[in-house]
Design brief:
- α7 links the parallel β7 and β8.
- Helix content is 43%, strand content 17%.
- It has two domains: 50 residues, Multidrug-efflux Transporter Regulator, Chain: A, Domain 2, CATH 1.10.1660; 131 residues, Rossmann fold (3-Layer(aba) Sandwich).
- α1 packs across α2 and α2 packs across α4.
């Protein structure tokens, strides 16, 4: 984290959370993922530039996703059981201003219902969730001929060795390590959009 600018006004993570109307943990996640800039005091406390908090309020919370005909939107299904992470995804994706439509579910069962109603273009899923893990839904999808082509991105705290130990993943699945790099995720989604345009020509 960068050193403080003496001309900048700073606030605590708690103050930022109150201004943004989110939990303290959500702000901490945003800082860790790079959505919000911050620096640490000698005592280890985070301080956030007030300008960065205001920018997030105006530039992200005030914007929706790019308006486009539904047929042109990239439909993304996000399977994530952590409410703070869901808010992080929502806030970040809204800030991208890309032709995407995201649906958020917290369980494998909900995900399968959404997929059954109409196949999304991309599934973003965690691997470790209470009761059921992400390996289960991936195996179900890859064993279904109609759904085998679905693009899948895994976001996980597990390292490669731990993934292999639990049964590994198909080679075509992209894996991002937590805390997720939203720049990398945005790049992947841009590639998906570009690939679809090529196929439509």
């Amino acid at each position: 984290m960068k050193s403080p600018n003496v001309q900048e006004v700073y606030c605590t993570t708690r103050e930022a959370a109150q201004m943004l109307g989110v939990s303290l943990r959500t702000v901490q996640l945003w800082v860790e993922s790079g959505v919000l800039k911050a620096w640490k005091t000698d005592g280890g406390h985070r301080r956030l530039p007030l300008s960065a908090v205001n920018e997030l309020i105006h530039d992200r919370m005030g914007k929706g996703q790019t308006t486009a005909p539904s047929s042109q939107l990239l439909n993304i299904l996000v399977l994530e059981d952590d409410e703070d992470m869901v808010k992080l995804y929502q806030m970040t994706m809204e800030g991208w201003q890309m032709p995407i439509q995201a649906t958020f579910v917290s369980s494998v069962y909900e995900a399968l219902i959404v997929i059954g109603r109409g196949q999304p273009d991309l599934l973003i899923t965690d691997l470790k969730m209470p009761g059921v893990d992400g390996f289960e839904i991936i195996n179900l999808l890859r064993n279904d001929e109609a759904l085998r082509s679905l693009d899948i991105v895994v976001v996980t705290a597990l390292n490669r060795a731990e993934i292999e130990e639990k049964g590994s993943l198909p080679a075509d699945i992209m894996v991002f390590t937590k805390p997720v790099s939203f720049d990398q995720l945005q790049g992947y989604i841009k590639a998906c959009l570009a690939h679809r345009k090529i196929l439509e020509r």
